[in-house]
Amino acid sequence: MLNTFSRTFIPAAWLGWQVESNWTHPLVFFLFSALKPISGVMILVFMFRAVSHVSTSSPLYAYIYVGNAFYIYVGAIVAGASYSILDDRERYRSLKYLYIAPVSIPVYMFGRAVARFATATLAVAITLAAGGLIFKVPIHPLQVDWPMFLSALFLGVLCLAAIGIILGSWTLTIRSEPHFLGEAVAAAMYLFSGAIFPITLLPRSLQPIGYLMPMTYWLELVRRALLGTNLSVFPTLVSYSNGELFGVLAILTASFGVVAFIAFRYFDRMARDRGMIDAQSNF
Amino acid sequence: MDSGWRLFLRTIVARAYPRVIGQQRQKSWIFFETFLPFIAVAGYVYVYRAMEASQDFMGFAVMGGAMTAFWLNVIWSMSAQMYWEKDNGNLALYIMAPNSMMAILLGMALGGMVATALRAAVILIFGIWVFHVQFAVSSFVQLFAVFLLTMSALYGMGMLFASLFLLYGRNVWQINAMMQEPIYLISGFYFPVKNFGMVVSLAASILPMTLGMDAMRQLMFSSGPAIGFLPVRKEIVGLVFLSVVFVTAAKYWLDKMERLAVQEGTLTDRRK
């Protein structure tokens, strides 16, 4: 166990961090890391400004801002797992060497996800700080329910990592356009999990998809922890207590964990069988 | 053997051909490249709905989503293309061949534009169908002129970036990914750019999409003239200026890059 950790997890996390960050000077990397997420939320801020009758003191504003900030984790970890596999398999062509090395591939994937988690955390922190300091989002560090926030964050990220492992191992078996898999799932989560609007706005037939997504409950918990009762005007999950939300999220996280374990075994075997470990897509 | 303008034209057609035909051979690509931007469009439309904004704002989001197809095509399939070609080993072949590099880039631009127009049209049609967006076009002639000029300036910029990005090597990947949202923001893909104020809007006008989309919004929606930051005629003049500047700069940098690469022997060096 300790051997696997030191031999696979730490080098994978370190490698992931290097791949993400060493392409430029640390200061430039920091500026770029801030530019992308802040621009993303500023699009929403200016959409608010454009619709003149809506004020930034509206609860909807904080709802959208926080949801968009934490969605950064979804893109980084879920789509990121898929990209990591493709980077290793096709860009750096190193996946085949990892397979013959005495390392655990799922632990390696988890390590790479941790590196993406670190860069995403930097982006989320910058976005939230900008929200509190510049964009008038009512986040006050002294009023945040930190235990609830950290517990929700832990469970949510664990669930995202499980989804990332499912997609990463599925990516291993795809020969045509594998780059789109992670993006498509992350995009669907953006729309259906209520990241930037209450899912009650979706057509009735599509709303059940949102209720099946762990991100829906995770984002609600994070919003409640950061913003308190300011959001009670949105009816989506108002009937759920915090305990119930944690319960649903924990069940979904455990379920995705089990599915991730089975999916890795299944897709890994399929990829080896079909000779996909060193494949180049679209050829 | 063809030479002169005949070779120039044949090169354009030859480079445009795989862009157009390749689209039909890889149908999953068409699906994903229309589906993913449409999801983002839907997200922004629902945000406007949550704000109880007028129907025109939803139209702005749909139009912005359609135009992202062109931006993504320019940034990934034009600007980064020379770097990919170098990585694949094709760049040295392009330079060795007796054709003009400018013709190769023009072919790439024309082929990309035609193929991307299909995707943009699908996003637009889906947007109109699903979200009941209504247009009130005030001048089809001006709208057509604005669209063509926006494309000229935009793909001219792509041709310029193709040379510049080659110098940045593997950083291109990160820079492209990192710059996506900032460009969507300052070009006002999903909201009227007038909200930035005159100074920032003018500074953002160095990107052809800013002027092009502002003019298109003014020409396509009933509330358009009230939300434009410059009159349409001035924006058309601005787009003509940008087209000339970008295409001229692209030619200058392309020649310079070709010279530099040959002198320094980096055409086949995949480490940079």
Characteristic terms for this protein:
heterodimer; A: 283 residues; mainly alpha; 10 helices; 0% strand; B: 272 residues; 12 helices; 81% helix
Protein topology:
The complex is a heterodimer of chains A (283) and B (272).
Chain A lengths: L1 H20 L4 H25 L8 H33 L3 H6 L4 H29 L12 H26 L7 H14 L14 H6 L1 H14 L14 H32 L10
Helix pairs in contact in A: 1-5, 2-3, 2-5, 3-5, 3-6, 3-7, 3-9, 5-6, 6-9, 6-10, 9-10
Chain B lengths: L3 H22 L1 H24 L4 H25 L1 H8 L1 H7 L4 H31 L8 H29 L2 H16 L11 H7 L3 H13 L3 H4 L4 H33 L8
What does this structure look like?
The complex is a heterodimer of chains A (283) and B (272). Chain A has 283 residues and is an all-alpha fold. Helices cover 72% and strands 0% of the residues of chain A. Chain A contains ten helices and no strands. The two termini of chain A are 39 Å apart. Chain B has 272 residues and is mainly α. In chain B, helix 2 runs antiparallel to helix 3, helix 3 packs antiparallel against helix 6 and helix 7 packs antiparallel against helix 10. Chain B is globular, with a radius of gyration of 19 Å. Classes of the chains: A mainly alpha (283), B mainly alpha (272). Chains A and B meet through helix 2 and helix 7 of A and helix 2 and helix 8 of B.
Q: Helix amount of chain B, in percent?
A: over 70%
The low-confidence runs of chain A, each spanning 5 or more residues with pLDDT under 50, are: none
Average pLDDT over all residues of chain A: 86
H/E series of chain B:
HHHHHHHHHHHH
Overall morphology of chain B: globular
Question: Outline of chain A, from the CA principal axes?
Answer: globular
What is the rounded distance between the termini of chain B? 36 Å
Largest sheet of chain A: none
Largest sheet of chain B: none
Percentage of residues in helical conformation of chain A: over 70%
Number of strands of chain A: 0
Class from helix and strand fractions of chain A: mainly alpha
Outline the low-pLDDT stretches of chain B: none
In N-to-C order, the SSE pattern of chain A is HHHHHHHHHH
End-to-end Cα distance of chain A, whole Å, is 39 Å
Work out the number of β strands of chain B: 0
